[in-house]
Structure formats: C-alpha cells, structure tokens
Design brief:
It contains 23 helices and 11 strands. By secondary structure, it is an alpha/beta fold. It is globular and about 80 Å long. The model has no long low-confidence stretch (mean pLDDT about 95). Bound molecules: 6-O-phosphono-beta-D-fructofuranose.
Length: about 550
C-alpha cells in the first residue's frame, strides 16, 4: 500500500499538528532523560536522536506506519534474494557479499570464487609479485569508473587512508574531462601502474572512453603489454571485458544482483582491498554484516536503520521537508556526502510507485552536505535561519584519527555539539535583545538589530558516533544508510533499486555530440535552443 493509504498516516497528519507548535528546547527542560529514551547503541555505534521533534506517541505511530507498510516481509524478501527490483526483475543481494547466509548456494559460490580471485590479486600486488610490462612492481593504482564504480572505493579509501599501504598510491579517474584525466596521468609511471577498469555494465561511455584515452597515452610499444598485464576488469559483464582484450584471469566478475551504488562490497572494492590489505577489507565487510544482522533481527523500535528512516519520513512527509544534510565532523569522511548522495538520490528519487502509478507525496530528499567545520562557515546559515526545514545527520568519530592532535579533535567534537544545540535551541527575540543590551548597544540599536539575530531553532538533527574510523565501523555506517534508504523506499512504495532517470541523458548524448561535431548544422534533430547552444559552443571551442 502507498504511504497515504496506511492506517497510521491520517493519525500522523493529525499528530503533526499537535507537535508542530511545541519546542524541543522546552522538552529538554522538562524531560531530562531524552537522551536515554531517544538514543541507541548498535555494535559500538551510537545514534542520539533526542534532538528530534518527537515524543513517545510520534514514535509509536511511526512504528505502526512501518508495520503497516509490510516492511518485515519486504526485508525478508530482500535478504533471501527475491527479485524486489521489479522493473529490472533482479534480486538485491549486496548483503550476500558481506556474509548474508540466507541466500542460495549458487550465489554463495559465486561470491566465494570472486573473493578468492580478489584476494590472490591483492596479495600479489601488495607483495610486489605482480609486475608490469617492464618487470617493476606496482607503485600506482588507477581506478577508472564512475558512480557506484567510483564513489565507494574513493570514499572508503580516503576514510581509511591512515592504515593504507604506503608503497602504492591510488588514484581515481571518473570524469571524462581531460583535465581530470591528465592530472592523474601526470602523477603515474604507466609501466608500474595497475589500471582497474570498473564498470558493472561495461558500457558506460565515460569509463570506456577514459580507458581508451589511457591506452592511447601509453607508448605504442607498451600498449598491448599494459592491456594484457596491467589491466584488471571488475564487471558484471565479463564477456565485454574480454572483447576489449583483457585476459579472463584478470577479470573479477560480480553478479547482476549487486546494484552499482551498492557495489563497494564486491570486486568494485578491489582498490580498497589492495590499499588496506585483504584482512582489513574483510573487516569492512564484517562491520556491514553486523549491521545487516542487526537490521534483520532487531525489533523496529530498537532498529537503527528503521528509526533513522522513520525520522526522515516524519520530516519529509509530515513537515514537508525537501532536503537532508549529511554533516561528518571528520575530514576523512568528506567523500561520504557524494557517496550517500548517489546511494539515496539514485535510489529514492522516484515519482511512481511499484505499479508505475504516479505518487502525490514526497519521496527521496535532496541529500547535501560538507565536512562539518567547513560547512558551518558556509551553508549552515541557511540551516539556522533559512525558511526550509532541513534535518541533519551529524557524524562524529570519537577518537582522533591522527593521535597527536587531541586538542584540535576536542574543538571538532565541541563544534559539532554546538551546531546541534544551536539548531535545536535557536535564539528568541528576547534573548537576542538582552544579549545586545548586555553587549552595550543602545535600546534603539538593540531593538533594530535583534530581529536579524533571532534564530528559530527547533531544527532536528541526529548525532551518529563511531568509536573510531576503522574498516568495521565504516562498513557498519554505510550499511546503516543503505538499510535506511531501503526502509524509506518500502514506506514510499517505490522501487529503490532501479535508476531509469539517468538513461534519458545518456540516450540524448550521441545526437547532441554529433551536433557539436558536425560541420553542417542545417539538419536539426534536437530542440532549437540546444542546437543553437551547440553551435555557439562549437564556435567558441574551434
Ligand atoms: O548512470 C548512472 C549509473 O548507471 C550508476 O547507477 C552506476 O553506478 C554508474 O552509472 C556506473 O555504471 P557502471 O558501473 O555500469 O559503469
């Protein structure tokens, strides 16, 4: 059933009217146990959701909504590999890559054989036994991929760089902009570089074009050797990789049942596994598996992904909130934002339900953010005083990643808590006026300035605390968000696992590309504005 047809929906609409005028700052005065009541620890990760516009009734109603949406059965269907991606008739089994035991033997065998291959490559490269055309060990890795074949390994490697091997440098090429490609190529020696061509479909224009550009860039004497000895393909389409000339033993396949944006757990994670070592990569998978098990077995009222999802639904569907900020107060987690942007927006940016019928309620929010300290000196202004209600997830790492900077770490943690507190408390007109008078302003000046300093407050946020930035906690954090996104998709009654929206732009590209290259523009196959702009650009770039 669709969200608006669930029995709890109208009750929640009514309940929102009671909650909306109430202020969290007042609740914190009368309810000293909000943290105890509205926080939860799972496998070492803490979720503090006390700064939300909820009371026990809100939670109760949201939990009823989850029950009524048939979430339990949908979870069972996902974990056992039913084709819940209905528009593509595919199972959704990224959980199988990290130890989900509910799947069939054939899936388990495929996962196991991919892992063996991956582990062999990891060990060969790290030990220096994998040599390139000139007999030199690998000193650089270049991952060529985009979207899910790029964002996960890049984000995770950046997060865990402190435990990465120092003898190898890893680079990522995603954009087709030649400046980006050139920047990377200028840093590497092609004869000691391992190129990982990562593409689930093995038909993504950007990735294949970049791979060919790299092959064109190496000297003709080395081209064939590099393709044979220094290219690895990671794909669900091994025959296409073979057709490009990559030897079968250098192709690590994964199943169609791994969605691109859920693929960091598969052989798409190869650059990460090489840089961290296979054992640490296994810990990353294990952390995610622990979160899977929690999600699969915990009652909804104690289920971290379910609670996060329901809080999101509360604001998106009952407070009309259009966006959600992801704010890690940890520089190493800065690429988490684009990663979650794809995970969430490509999954839940949908307008029709599972049956293809248009839906009238909001679905996936705009996901945006920035590493916290930088963000608070920029767009946080709009969180505090803008007109939109934008809930935020603050992500904290309790222990400093770099051990000798404890004092800076304390400021980082305090900054995060200050932002969450400011969002919750705000500043009333009276408080603003009194502060200004205390600062020595005249009554007139203070009265004029005070309205500009009023901060509405009552802005919700969650605080997620990882004990430290380690492979297992990172794995658990990512799985937490994956499942949150899944739960929201179930409640919205949408397919979170297809991405037809990105196809139209791809389909238009050849025609527009042709228009940009054609000498004669009389034959117009695109709209007049696009044709005119294409001609304008052609004139500018020639
Ligand atoms: O265009 C979007 C997309 O299809 C994503 O879903 C995917 O992660 C990305 O492109 C890359 O796709 P592939 O791994 O098939 O090259």
């Amino acid at each position: 059933m669709r969200l608006t047809e669930l029995a709890a929906y109208p009750t929640l609409v009514q309940h929102q009217k009671e909650i909306a005028p109430q202020r969290m700052r007042d609740w914190f005065v009368t309810e000293s146990d909000r943290f105890e009541r509205y926080s939860l620890q799972v496998n070492g990760i803490l979720l503090d959701y006390s700064r939300n516009r909820i009371n026990d009734t809100t939670l109760q109603l949201l939990l009823e909504l989850a029950e009524q949406s048939d979430l339990k059965n949908r979870m069972i269907a996902m974990f056992k590999g039913d084709p819940i991606n209905t528009s593509e008739q595919r199972a959704v089994l990224h959980t199988a890559l990290r130890g989900n035991a509910v799947v069939t033997t054939s899936i388990r065998d495929m996962v196991a054989s991919s892992k063996i291959k991956m582990q062999e490559i990891v060990e060969k490269v790290r030990s220096g036994k994998w040599v390139g055309v000139s007999g030199k060990p690998i000193t650089h890795i270049v991952n060529i991929g985009i979207g899910g074949s790029h964002l996960g390994p890049k984000m995770a490697l950046n997060a865990l760089q402190d435990i990465a091997i120092k003898d190898i440098q890893c680079h990522f090429i995603s954009s087709i902009d030649s400046a980006h490609v050139q920047d990377v190529l200028s840093l590497i020696d092609p004869t000691s570089t391992l190129f990982i061509l990562s593409s689930k479909s093995f038909s993504t224009l950007e990735t294949l074009t970049n791979a060919n550009s790299i092959l064109d860039w190496v000297t003709p004497t080395h081209r064939e050797g590099i393709l044979q000895e220094q290219f690895i393909a990671v794909t669900a389409q091994p025959s296409k990789a073979e057709a490009l000339g990559i030897p079968t033993e250098h192709i690590i396949p994964f199943g169609e049942w791994v969605g691109g944006r859920y693929s960091v757990w598969s052989s798409v994670g190869l650059p990460l596994a090489i840089m961290l070592g296979y054992d640490r990569f296994t810990e990353f998978l294990a952390g995610a598996h622990a979160m899977d098990e929690h999600f699969r077995t915990a009652p909804f009222s104690q289920n971290m992904p379910v609670l996060l999802a329901l809080l999101g639904i509360w604001y998106i569907n009952f407070f009309d909130s259009p966006a959600h900020a992801i704010i890690p107060y940890a520089d190493r987690l800065r690429y988490l934002i684009p990663y979650l942007q794809q995970a969430d927006m490509e999954s839940n940016g949908k307008s029709v339900d599972l049956n293809g019928h248009p839906i009238s309620y909001r679905t996936g929010p705009i996901i945006f953010g920035e590493e916290g300290i930088n963000g608070q000196h920029a767009y946080h202004q709009a969180l505090h005083q803008g007109q939109l209600l934008i809930p935020a997830d603050f992500i904290l790492v309790a222990s400093p990643t770099v051990s000798h900077h404890h004092s800076q770490h304390a400021i980082t943690l305090a900054s995060c808590l200050s932002q969450a507190t400011a969002l919750m408390q705000g500043k009333t007109a009276n408080e603003a006026l009194n502060d200004l008078l205390l600062a020595g302003l005249s009554q007139t000046d203070a009265t004029n300035l005070a309205p500009h300093q009023v901060i509405a407050g009552n802005k919700p946020s969650n605080i997620i605390v990882l004990p430290r930035l380690s492979p297992d906690y990172l794995g658990a954090l990512l799985a937490l968000y994956e499942h949150k996104i899944f739960v929201q998709g179930v409640i919205w009654h949408i397919n979170s696992f297809d991405q037809w929206g990105v196809e139209l732009g791809k389909a238009l590209l050849p025609t527009i590309h042709k228009q940009l290259q054609a000498s004669n523009h009389s034959e117009q196959t695109i709209d007049s504005a696009t044709a005119a702009l294409a001609n304008y650009l052609k004139g500018m770039s020639s």
